Every structure is written in structure tokens, then in C-alpha cells.
Amino acid sequence: MHNMNQNPSKMKRSLTTFFFLALSYISKADVIYFPLQYSLINYSLELIYEYEVIRSPKNSFVYWGGAGVVGSFFYIDEPTIGVESAFEYRRYFKPETFKNFFFSTYIGIAYMTDLEYNHDLGLVPGLKMNHKSQLSKQFVLESYLGVSLPISYDLDATSFWVPFPMATVGIRLGICNLKRK
Q1: pLDDT per residue as tens digits for the range 111-157
Q2: Hey, what long-range contacts does 50-56 have (CB within 8 A, 24 or more apart)?
């Protein structure tokens, strides 16, 4: 019989992941974004690659790229897919761990499409509260809650959308290469 007390960090990781997944039913912020205006509250599921450079015991600078699906809870039947690339500054709560909870700011670019009518480019600045779970040496699961202000250009209509803030709950799964100074 398995004793749950043997590995409390797995239990914490599982509860944290469950918490952020549960929040996704009530709450967009990442570089991939939902291109329709006034969507307000979105979800995001992503596959990413991160190159994280440690700057100090609690801070790092990250370059990441990836792809994912973003949808709005107000347009539930109209998800979009996209690719993204960004620079992010992270501030971890515990020194020298470079996992668990951290706050971040970022700016990135994205191409988003619904494969039919919407084809948008976006410049996206934002803020996030994150949790990083180390699944293996380089494999990570990151959950987050954030806000962003996508500056979007509609490639079909050749027009800009007025920036409008969005909230996002997301899950990112991918590879993280952590580089110490």
C-alpha cells in the first residue's frame, strides 16, 4: 500500500496543478492570445521550449517559444491556435530553486489563427503569477494566471485592434534548459 506521506512534494505539485486547472473554469495572458476583442477571460494550453539564464539567487531571464491553443470562455466554440516567442523576467519566491512559485513580466510576438477567417499578428506585453513543477531534469509543467494587453494586427483586414486587457489561466508543458552563470 502506498503511503502519501512518503513524498509530500508530489502532493503539493498535484494540488497546485489541480488548483490552477480549477481556476481555468472561471478565468488570458500569455503571448499566444485570443484575437477577438473583448473576450476578457481566456484559457491557454501550450507546448514550449525555454532557455532560462539565472541572474541572481531569485531572478532569471528566459527566452521561450512554442505553440498552443487559446480560447475564450465567451466564445467557447471558437478556439484559436498559434505560435509564440517571448522574453520573460522571472522573480522566484524561494532562492536557488528556480521552480515552484514565481512572478514574471514578459513581452513577445505571436501569430494566431482559427484556420478559417482570423489571421492575426500580435505584440503582447503582460504579467503572470506562475507555478513551475519539475517533472524531470528538463521537463516542466507550468501553470499560470496572468493579464496581458495584446496589440493585434488583423492580416486579412490589414487593420489594428485597439489594445484591450485580457485575463488568462494557462498550462504550459515543455522543455526547460536552465543555465547557471
Answers
A1: 999 888 889 999 999 999 999 999 999 999 999 999 999 888 888 87
A2: 50/140, 50/174, 50/175, 50/176, 50/177, 51/177, 51/179, 52/90, 52/98, 52/176, 52/177, 52/178, 52/179, 53/179, 53/181, 54/98, 54/178, 54/179, 54/180, 54/181, 55/181
